[in-house]
Structures are given as structure tokens and as C-alpha cells.
Design goal:
The protein is an alpha/beta fold and 165 residues long. The protein has one domain: CinA-like (Maf protein, Alpha-Beta Complex).
Length: 165
């Protein structure tokens, strides 16, 4: 099953969030909702998952993310700055302990010149972290799965290293 690849990291994150009594919200683009789907696949997700948005276009980002934090001047998608903006905005808008932001290019091509398989992830909360992934693939579905898994991995690492309240 498609979601099987996400089962272990999602269960691990769910366990950490429950232990810490913390919550998460997600704003993702190129992962197409797979980060949220993974987190929601764990029974009892309503204890820690507050919501998410697929901000695949500039219009979606503006509609759902603007106003929570100031958008950096000259910001563009598929960058560390944009992923961080998404993570900060979604956590504030939904009142979550943690925000996950993802922005990239799943491929096989895009009008902005970013290589296929390129994505940035950001975690915002009690601590912040970012990571860039370049898969080297031009397969859209494979990149989407790789992006979601990389975002979950970064979030699990950040949670494990973060101080508890």
C-alpha cells in the first residue's frame, strides 16, 4: 500500500508528540499533502494534528498563509526562506506547537528553473531546523514520496533533540 512507507516515521512522530503533549500543523507544496496524510494515518491523530494546507501555488500560499508573519521581501518558492515562512505561518495560524513547511519542485520540469527533485523543508517551533533535498530524480510521484519522507525525518530528528516544556 502507498502509505506503508510512511507508517513507521508517522507512528514515531505521533508517539513523541503525544508524550510531549504537543501539536503540529503542515503547509506543503510539492509533497502534495503526503506529509499530512502520513501524520493523519496514525489512529488518534486528532490529539496532535491541527491541520494543514497544500500551498501548491502562489495564490494558495497568499490565501492560507499570509498575515501570520511578515513575508520576506523577494521571497520565492522552492527556497529555504519560503519553507521557513510556511512553517512559521502555519504554526501561528493554527496555534500549533510545531509547523512543518515544504517547498520544492517535484518535476519533471517547472517554469521557475528549479531542478526536479529539489525541495526545502523547515520546522518551526520551540527550535527551528531546515534541510534541502535533491533526489536527482525527475519522476514526480517518487519525488513527492521522497519529499514527504525527508520532511518527516527532519521533524522526528528535531522533536527528539528539542527540549521538553
Amino acid at each position: 500500500m502507498f502509505i506503508d512507507a510512511f507508517a513507521e516515521p508517522a507512528r514515531h512522530i505521533a508517539s513523541l508528540l503525544r508524550e510531549r503533549d504537543e501539536t503540529v500543523a503542515v503547509a506543503e507544496g510539492s509533497a502534495g499533502g503526503l506529509i499530512s496524510a502520513a501524520l493523519l494515518s496514525v489512529p488518534g491523530a486528532s490529539a496532535y494534528y491541527l491541520g494543514g494546507a497544500v500551498v501548491y501555488t502562489g495564490a494558495a500560499s497568499k490565501a492560507w498563509m499570509s498575515g501570520a508573519v511578515d513575508a520576506p521581501r523577494g521571497m520565492r518558492g522552492a527556497t529555504e526562506v519560503f519553507a521557513t515562512y510556511l512553517a512559521r505561518s502555519v504554526s501561528i495560524k493554527l496555534g500549533a506547537t510545531w509547523g512543518i513547511g515544504e517547498a520544492g519542485a517535484a518535476g519533471p520540469a517547472n517554469p521557475y528553473g528549479d531542478p526536479a527533485g529539489h525541495s526545502w523543508f523547515a520546522i518551526s517551533g520551540p527550535v527551528e531546523a531546515t534541510r534541502n533535498v535533491l533526489t536527482g530524480l525527475d519522476d514526480r510521484a517518487e519525488n513527492m514520496v521522497a519529499f514527504a519522507l525527508a520532511a518527516l525525518s527532519l521533524f522526528a530528528e528535531t522533536l527528539a533533540d528539542a527540549p521538553t516544556a
